[in-house]
Amino acid sequence: QVQLVESGGGLVQAGGSLRLSCAASGRTFRTFAMGWFRQAPGKEREFVAAISRSGDLTFYADSVKGRFTISRDNAKNTVYLQMNSLKPEDTAVYYCAARFWEVRTTPADFGSWGQGTQVTVSS
User: Fold this and answer.
1) What pLDDT score was predicted for residue 26?
2) What burial class does residue 89 get, using C-beta atoms within 10 Å of its C-beta: 0-12 exposed, 13-18 middle, 19+ buried?
3) pLDDT at 117 over 80
């Protein structure tokens, strides 16, 4: 559907911040709801945040609510994940995903995925 490339991951100390970016190809970015998911070693891929096509509706996992903010800039074909007050349990590979039209919060509902970017939070 769309090609996605994540960036912005890295190593940060607990309490620090990172901003992830996801750049989408094509001219149809506005027709896709976007999401962020993460996967830690030995664990299933889990929902982090999602945003509707217009950006007016957002969803967050309870584990990140109040700390993470998802946003999008449709003019730049980019979705962002601002991560504040990071904890060691946030350590994972973070994936950007796209779903045509309506926003959802489960991995199986998203058809396009980026390659992932590693986020490591040290104690």
Assistant:
1) 80
2) exposed
3) yes
